[in-house]
Amino acid sequence: MSNTPMAANPLTRAVLEIDEYASGLGWDQPARLFALVDTARLRTSEPALAAQLGLADDTGETGLTPIEQEEVPADRPLDEFLATIAWPGAVTGCALTVERQMLPPSAENQVPQGLTGAKLAKWVASHPERQEVRMTVAVLRDGTRDSAIRLREKDSPTEVLTGPDLVPGLAEALTATFED
User: How far apart are CA 135 and CA 149, in angstroms?
Assistant: First the structure.
């Protein structure tokens, strides 16, 4: 059983479950992509897979089951990779967990003019106010979204920030994977 706190809705529970899983792997991990499937539907349509995932017993548990996908290529920009994804109909939603460095809003005025790409990343990495974060963002086919952010310096399940609009750009990119 997960140590994930009970959340108000299945999508938030899935986001926190994925965050907990990623936390157990430690920091400095590659991005990870997950399909989100309806747990009850998974039990009936794929009983062998449900059993492999420990969901074979119908305990009345409903919600979403995250299923990790193949490795996200590290040598390709994330937005380009996401643009190549198409999900089968049985997939209710998807989620991605990724680590990044970020700066507080107060540092925006300090960014040197003209820095982009690798030079900007190097500048952020050397900034004294940088924070390492793990972002887990999930979306459903209907556009519902949720996310969790965990700071490396406050790496505790009780310090995870959740909300639907914490990482809007990534949520939009994941939503686009469901468009025809």
Answer: 5
CA-to-CA separations, 130 to 101, 112, 134, 157, 176, in angstroms, rounded: 6, 15, 13, 21, 30
Q: Which residues of 10-44 are buried (b: 16+ CB within 10 A; e: fewer)?
A: bbbbbbbbbbbbbbeeeeeeebbbbbbbbbbebbe
| 114 confidence band (pLDDT: 50, 70, 90) | confident
Tokens representing 131? Answer: 């924070």
5 Cβ contact list (under 8 Å, min separation 6): 16, 157
Closest CA to 101 of 71, 127, 65, 78: 127
Torsion of CA 171, 85, 17, 100, to 10 degrees: -60
9: three-class secondary structure by DSSP: coil
Dump pLDDT digits (tens) for 141-175: 999 999 999 999 888 888 899 999 999 999 999 99
